[in-house]
Amino acid sequence: MRSTEQLLVDRARLMGPNVSTFYDDPLHLVRGEGVWLWDADGRKYLDCYNNVPHVGHCNPRVVEAICRQASTLNTHTRYLHEGILSYIERLTATTDASLDTAILTCTGSEANDIALRMAEAVTGKRGIIATDATYHGNTALVSQLGKSNIPTVGFGLGQFFRFVDAPDSYRHPDPDGTTFAAHVAQQIDGLEKDGTGFAALVVCPYFLNEGFPDLPDGWLKPVAEVVRRTGGLLICDEVQSGFGRTGTHMWAHEKMGVVPDVMVLGKPMANGHPVGGVVANHDIVAAFRTGYRYFNTFGGNPVSCAAAMAVLEEIDDKGLVANAQTVGAYARERMQKLATQHEVIGDIRGSGLIFGAEMVTDRTTKAPASDFTDRVINALRHRGVILSKLGRHKNTLKIRPPMPFSKDNADLLFDTLDEVLADTSLHP
Ligand code: PMP
Question: Which domains occur in the chain, in start order?
Fold first, then answer.
């Protein structure tokens, strides 16, 4: 087996400069099971970060479903197959009745790309609005939404995109969502006046990439009203927030009090097997069909559908949404206690199994402790706990473990975090 140093050299040589790694000392993982990962030296890590293995690394039900279907048949969707229909039936049984039709893809990026093109097909307009601290994917169209990394190339698509300040409950509270709605209304007005026209607002309903600000349930209602009144579509990107992650609902848009026109899915959908999707009303999907001929060779193939079905079954059978709520509430209690002991914790937040803390150098000025947060993440990695950071200032601990995460796992996480935060050599 290649050494870590050799892997890094060979990655750069064979994969080019566009592949980043986590950590100062990148991890070479070789095995996973449940919430645990092992590296090439046999060292065990508690995974508090990866949401793709939603029902646990190498979940036996998902592995069995993939093996069974892969050894029976795998083709594309131009042949008839029971699996894709059973899956879409089961998926749409979890959503509002208006979200009754789905297109399956291989990635969240493709799914968002379709969602934006659906908005153009339905409205006849092209103006898209998103927050200024989000990420929705990597196609030429969708990559325009990542304002922190706006492509300098991209076929001139940037002209169709407008941004509003991401919600920030810690520094700029907007408890009823009316300020956010007013900012979106302003951008819509601008798009209509300059002739671009308003097609859609796209948001992650729990604003995960933005640092999951603490927003009360129902917070998206005012902005949804603005979007509807002005004739655009509301696209909810549930790639990170969906499948029960928040512990209170299967879909975060339900928590935020809205029904989107288009729901976008990805990452956890098939536990690591590449599956994404767009769920919308039949009429919207029909309008998209008129505008575009769409075919996806791998999207919705029988093996992908078997894996995705096993994820839904596992969520139900193991009560994983309720587990997210119970363990998430416990995690918040433990974080609250840590915040009384460590001044550097400025704010704690989250719901279910997405939670974290914002690190500051000073609680009064709320100055972000971004470099310190980076040192904390690296120190945790060396103590066998994997998590990450995000948000506008990259100073929010992002804790988003596989859904079978237990209270014992949370204890190990917070005991280790306590030790790391007490290590004065890491402080500024
Ligand atoms: N939407 C959101 C909210 C995401 O976080 C991501 C990936 N980080 C995507 C879409 C893109 O998904 P994919 O990488 O599967 O294309």
Answer: 4-55+319-426 (3.90.1150.10), 61-317 (3.40.640.10)
